[in-house]
Amino acid sequence: MDSKDKLFHKKSTLNCRGNILSLSTPQVMGILNLTPDSFYAGSRLSSTQEAVKRAEAMLAEGANILDIGGYSSRPGATDISEQEEIDRVVPAIEAIHAAFPEAILSIDTFRAKVAEAAVNAGASIINDISGGNLDEAMFETVAKLQVPYILMHMRGTPQTMTTLAKYEDVVLEVIDELQAQVAKLNQLGVKDIILDPGFGFAKTIEHNFELLRRLDELRILGLPILTGMSRKSMVYKALGIDQADALTGTIAVNTIALMHGADILRVHDVKETKQTVQLYTKTLL
Prior knowledge:
Shape: globular
Largest sheet: 8 strands, parallel
Strand content: 15-25%
Number of helices: 10
Helix content: 40-55%
């Protein structure tokens, strides 16, 4: 371990309701969207049965975590009620947890009541795109449940965020805004926090690539880092291709993320990402 690694040493395990997840090597999080309007059509699931089948396939391909969401967060997405979100995700989480009790499940939500219902149904990580800014009860709920919390950077809401992508220095401002939320979580006794810089959320394509280039600067906060760039516009628009053809580009940006300190890759394509991680780890001493 070099001096930089010692200075910015990160927590290397997550306690997922008694299931200890090691971050000694990068982990792969597979995306399960129980939504009709998620930005990538290939990720949409219309039933609990489909979700269980997709979960089985992703686990077979090597997924370490399954991230289950019922609210589309793409720019301009339609808002849905809290109850509709619960009705979408809870049956799927219950069914997946029953079928694969050892699997680590994450709930992708910014609503505290949805998060609590999902954890009660079998989820053991909360993935909040709003970083606690859209539900004032979220941080206290996380502290009560004592599950790992993915703190993502975003400004505004999925409906307004594109108008708020204004920064003097996107990396420093993201770090500052995340740090303020980390301090609140620490005061409440939350033990496991994962940082997500929020690629594509209140960021332009240029902002996204600046964040990727300087991702290792987030290590100053001493917390694990998750990146979610899978098939996003920063990939396919930058390449001038269709989203359906963005797998190769996604692998490229994920490889760069690994080289700059990413601990968890959130992706639609588990098998290919797992292979990317396996090859990357062969370059480590």
